[in-house]
Design a protein that fits this description.
Layout: E1 6-11, H1 15-26, E2 31-35, H2 41-46, H3 48-67, H4 81-106, E3 109-112, E4 116-119, E5 122-125, E6 128-137, E7 141-143, H5 157-160, E8 169-173, H6 177-188, E9 192-197, H7 208-220, E10 224-227, E11 231-236, E12 242-246, E13 252-254, E14 256-259, E15 263-265, H8 272-275, E16 298-300, H9 311-326, E17 340-342, E18 348-352, H10 355-359, E19 364-372, H11 376-379, E20 384-392, E21 398-404, H12 408-420, H13 425-430
Parallel strand pairs: 1-2, 1-6, 2-3, 6-16, 8-9, 8-14, 9-10
Antiparallel strand pairs: 4-5, 5-6, 7-15, 11-12, 12-13, 17-18, 18-21, 19-20, 20-21
Helix pairs in contact: 1-4, 1-9, 3-4, 3-6
């Protein structure tokens, strides 16, 4: 038998890589995980966790305003961006320590450095070669920016989380979930925000009702959306601000230019070509339903495979990998009806099919409701909530559920269980709502939308 240094080497200590490594070690496997940056990966260190903390901080601006309608004195306390960033960083340090302890307690060896494949069973790191029977690639994704003049002056979401001070004027290029989330953060905290999108609306790929609703709310909150334009170059000025030049728009001066135009699988210079691992046109690693590459003993999970780029999906894929390889229970991660959320202001949450996706499969009924949240009858805020159910006419099964409004991620998480179980509209109707809540609207919508 061939002797290897480890049973498993995982390249990448993000959420998926850590979960797979420690669960594999729990079966008795000898495991090493290699990471060149911070343990915890994009989600914990550069993504969902720090971003959500900033979203929480930004919401206080709205809360202070809303409190006046409930009898509280009008108060606008000073905001300290540097303090928020400092406390956020302390929390990330705490979380990273937890990840280190989880790996240590599981018996996983952590190796700091950049891992690179040099053979089907061999990985080079820090000038030495280590071997394993199985290799798992979990290197995640990385922000991308276009090759235009002056792009070196722009930042990505990575740097936006570490800005030393709150910018007075910020341009966010992009209309996806990262862009609208940071637009909401900066706007609520007092920055003048310009969002620049090539399309006519934000959130391409989401249900149209959510796209339309959120765009209206962003504009109502004072975010300036410049649609249908492209940035051609960025010029740094002597005053240390920047001028954006466009193909069909007047120049724009801002203090910070942030690009949120997409992320790419982090496959550069990790030895895929030398080993012969197949990738697609987006440089994502091609895998089968069991996350196995075309090299039998090499697997890949998470954003590097560009399937559904969400942390809980990477965790599920990591567990499926462990079941398949170390528990003799071949398991394919289930990518159907995965709920997701956009922590915009207001937030959006969704599970299942959009209206066009469902309509492509057959006749559907659509139930939709738009209303002002009960809280805002006293706060005076004009923010609207939107709820939408998409139902198969033939089976009565709920195919999609979408919501824009306060607490929508918390509400849709529960609704996702029903959708995952194949619940019908009749079963939604038979469920007695909790009153008074916004969530009860999902079980009280009776009138089909008339197109």
């Amino acid at each position: 038998m061939t002797s290897y240094d480890y049973d498993l080497i995982t390249i990448g200590a993000g959420s998926g890589g850590v979960r797979a490594s420690r669960m594999a070690a729990a079966t008795g496997a000898r495991v090493a995980v290699i990471e060149s940056m911070r343990t915890g990966g994009t989600c914990v260190m550069r993504g969902c966790v720090p971003k959500k903390l900033l979203v929480y901080g930004a919401h206080f601006a709205h809360d202070f305003e809303d409190a006046v309608g409930f009898g509280w004195a009008d108060a606008k306390p000073d905001f300290n961006w540097a303090k928020l960033i400092t406390t956020k960083n302390k929390e990330l340090d705490r979380l990273e320590g937890i990840y280190h302890n989880l790996l240590k307690n599981a018996g996983v060896e952590e190796i700091e450095g950049k891992g690179r494949l040099v053979g089907p069973h061999r990985v080079e790191v820090n000038g030495r070669t280590i071997t394993a029977e199985t290799i798992l690639i979990a290197t995640g994704g990385w922000p991308t920016m276009p090759k235009i003049a002056g792009i070196e002056h722009a930042i990505t979401s990575n740097e936006a989380l570490e800005l030393p001070e709150l910018p007075k004027r910020v341009a966010i290029v992009g209309g996806g979930y990262i862009a609208v989330e940071f637009a909401g953060i900066f706007n609520a905290l007092g920055s003048a925000v310009h969002e620049i999108i090539r399309a006519d609306k934000v959130l391409r790929g989401f249900d149209e009702s959510m796209r339309n609703g959120l765009q209206s709310e962003l504009i109502n909150k004072g975010i300036q959306i410049h649609s249908g334009v492209n940035v051609t170059s960025i010029v740094k000025n002597p005053e240390d601000d920047y001028t954006l030049l466009f193909d069909k728009h007047d120049p724009l001066n801002v203090d910070v230019v942030m690009y949120a135009t997409g992320r790419a699988p982090n496959t550069n210079d990790i030895g895929l070509e030398e080993v012969g691992i197949e990738t697609n046109s987006k440089n994502a690693i091609e895998v089968d339903t069991y996350s196995q590459t075309n090299i039998d003993n090499i697997y890949a999970i998470g954003d590097v495979t560009d399937r559904i780029n969400l942390t809980p999906v990477a965790l599920a894929e990591g567990m499926a990998f462990v079941n398949t390889v170390y528990r003799d229970t071949p398991t394919a991660a289930d990518h159907k009806n995965v709920a997701s959320a956009v922590f915009s202001q207001p937030p959006i949450a969704t599970v299942g099919l959009t209206e066009p996706e469902a309509a492509a499969l057959g006749p559907i009924d659509v139930y939709e409701s738009s209303f002002r949240n009960m809280k805002h009858t006293l706060s005076g805020r004009q923010e609207m909530s939107i709820m939408k159910l998409i139902v198969d006419q033939n089976t009565d099964q709920v195919l999609g559920c979408h919501m824009m409004g306060s607490d929508s991620p918390e509400i849709i998480q529960g609704i996702a269980i029903a959708v995952k179980c194949g619940a019908t509209k009749a079963q939604f109707d038979a469920t007695i709502g909790i009153h008074p809540t916004a969530a009860e609207e999902f079980v009280t919508m009776r009138e089909k939308r008339k197109d």
